[in-house]
Design goal:
single chain; mainly alpha; 2 domains; 9 helices
Length: 258
């Protein structure tokens, strides 16, 4: 029976990866994720169900549209494969109703963060609609497992601190230093991570963003005025905090002193 769950939930992960491709393409372009049906972005040929089977269809089509032969981005099967592998790794050793609930939480959170990561990289945007889904995943689990002051103070710090800093930066420079989506994402993650966890995320994501930003400017001669999406740095640190908590605690203890 456990093997059945392993196979079923892995296939579920692949299907969610396929759906995630539609979300990543459509949401930032303000296209409904329900209608119209999927079509080739160049010739607009409708994609039939048998051309939309995760991984398999890409291989059968040889990575090309069946009509105009336009190359299909390799990101589509990679996202499907990533979600399938993550689902496989997250399947609980012993399947119970409680374990399945936590599987939905951890896998769903990963899928949402992956979508936000890729959308922000391309569009420099963290859509509110996807942030809302993240709240719906995180808040119930946090309320059940943590005292009210843990998630409330974490959420307030996560939202309030970057909001105040951004507000002062705007007053001084007349420019928006951090996008609203980033601030909201900090607030949502603060619900789950608490005060200490979100403080560490704020510190490490800013440090990581600074190092990579300066590296891009120095080595790749990127224009200093060209904005760099900050969401991926927040998400990268958050993924380590959520999915590798013991390693993160050891890191913070040895290198940060707390």
């Amino acid at each position: 029976m456990d093997i059945f769950y392993k196979i079923f939930l892995t296939l579920f992960g692949l299907l969610i990866g396929s759906f995630l491709n539609a979300v990543i393409y459509r949401v930032p372009r303000r296209i409904s994720i329900i209608t119209p049906r999927s079509s080739c972005t160049k010739c607009k040929k409708l994609i039939h169900w048998y051309e939309n089977i995760p991984l398999i269809s890409f291989l059968l089509l040889k990575g090309k549209c069946s009509k105009c032969k336009t190359l299909i981005s390799i990101s589509y099967p990679l996202i499907e494969l990533t979600c399938g592998v993550v689902a496989f790794l997250l399947v609980p050793q012993r399947v119970t109703s409680e374990a399945l609930i936590y599987f939905v939480f951890y896998f769903g959170t990963f899928a949402v963060l992956l979508a936000q990561f890729l959308i922000d990289l391309e569009h420099k945007l963290l859509p509110d609609s996807i942030n809302i889904v993240l709240v719906l995943l995180i808040l119930p689990v946090t309320i059940i497992n943590q005292k009210w002051n843990f998630w409330l103070l974490g959420g307030l710090l996560g939202f309030g601190f970057p909001f105040v800093v951004t507000w002062f930066f705007y007053l001084l420079k007349g420019k928006v230093g951090l996008g609203g989506g980033d601030i909201k994402l900090f607030g949502i993650l603060g619900l789950y991570l608490g005060v200490k966890g979100i403080f560490l995320n704020l510190f490490l994501s800013c440090m990581l963003g600074s190092v990579i930003g300066l590296s891009l400017i120095y080595f790749l001669k990127r224009d200093k005025k060209e904005p760099i999406p900050f969401g991926p740095f927040i998400i990268f640190v958050a993924v380590i905090q959520i999915y590798f908590p013991s390693y993160f605690r050891e890191f913070s203890r040895h290198f940060l002193g707390f």
